[in-house]
Amino acid sequence: MRQLRILEVQLRDNDPVSADAPGGIEQMCYTLDKHLGLLGHEMTFLGHEASAVFGRLIPVPREWCDDEELMKQEGRIWQIRSYEDMINGLDLSKYDVAINHNSELCASAFPIPLVTIMHMPPQFFYDPMKYMDLSRKGSYFVSVSRFQAGLYVARGLVPDQIILNGIDMNRSDPVVGKREYLFFIGRIVPEKGAHVAIDLAKQADMPLVIAGAKYEETPERASYFSRVMKQIDGEKIKYVGPVGKKDKIELMRNAAAVVIPTQDVNAIEESFGLAAAEAGWCGTPVIASSNGALPEIVEEGRTGFIRDSLEGMLGALTRLREIDPVACQESAVKRFSAQRMARDYESFLYKIARSVSFP
């Protein structure tokens, strides 16, 4: 197979991409760039100017506009157009295919085959039907789970491929003698359910470590973050803020369980469940709700338990010893390795690069 020249485009307003990025989408950008590069492909990454990637970086300045009033009124659309202006300034004939992590970039900006990866549910985006333009020759759509694919199908967007995310982690022996604390990681917003993890820890009389960034961009979310913080005592309930990959993995490896109690708030559901896959890789059981794609990621009785009620989660805590850390890890490594993900994308990219020609 010949080497592909791949242009990878980051989401419009995300944080720097690196091996230790705390955000899940940033991790996926880095992992795909790295492991397609390791397969021998020539990678170019268009993204945040502070990113540290495997391939060549084309930096996009963090701020595009000094007019604060304009940014408040039209900032999202304006930033999208700014990205497109940068892309139009590139010589795209140097690339065989583009991987787009920005669902709101207009497909017509790319005179080469374009694969858009949807990392979030459809309600997160301005107008995916308008911008993706799947009727255009050479425009393709990848979903990261069967559940997420169903959400888009219901809106008239049928994915060309479903490719599960992969984890860029070195395999190490799982910790057999787990410490007696629970671990929650995620944005501190109502739908992620930090309040449920706190209730679970209190009723089980177990310590809880909470990691994640605060999001106070709306009064509702600011109020929620404040309520969660009032329950942090620094002893039984600890908040460590956003954590990088190294600290996250250490906290996961030693936890009795990773708790992912995602709630059906504002109709927002899990498109994948990266923390569940990472916990399995660490050999640590997951206790998760049945929200979104989580039942696809968590194997009942092998890598964790799916429970929606607090009572059910309390019952699952009594069964943690049934999860064999080694078998848990083996299952996750088989299903969610970065190498498997990269090979799946490579196969799809070869297929579309051969089948589409542009004038």
Structure description:
With 359 residues, the chain is of the alpha/beta class. It folds into 2 domains: 5-166 and 337-355, Glycogen Phosphorylase B (Rossmann fold), CATH 3.40.50; 182-335, Glycogen Phosphorylase B (Rossmann fold, 3-Layer(aba) Sandwich). Helix content is 36%, strand content 15%. It has 12 helices and 13 strands. The protein has helices spanning 24-38, 68-88, 128-132, 146-153, 194-204, 219-229, 245-254, 274-281, 294-297, 310-317, 325-336, 338-355, and strands spanning 5-9, 42-48, 56-60, 97-100, 114-118, 139-143, 161-162, 182-185, 208-211, 237-239, 257-260, 286-288, 304-306. A 7-stranded parallel beta sheet has the order 3-2-1-4-5-6-7. A 6-stranded parallel beta sheet has the order 10-9-8-11-12-13, with helices on both faces. It starts with a strand and ends with a helix. The relative contact order is 0.13.
For this entry, give a set of tags:
359 residues; Rossmann fold; 2 domains; 6-stranded parallel beta sheet; globular
Short description:
The protein is built from twelve helices and 13 strands.
List the helices and strands and how they pair.
Elements: E1 5-9, H1 24-38, E2 42-48, E3 56-60, H2 68-88, E4 97-100, E5 114-118, H3 128-132, E6 139-143, H4 146-153, E7 161-162, E8 182-185, H5 194-204, E9 208-211, H6 219-229, E10 237-239, H7 245-254, E11 257-260, H8 274-281, E12 286-288, H9 294-297, E13 304-306, H10 310-317, H11 325-336, H12 338-355
Parallel strand pairs: 1-2, 1-4, 2-3, 4-5, 5-6, 6-7, 8-9, 8-11, 9-10, 11-12, 12-13
Helix pairs in contact: 1-12, 5-10, 8-11
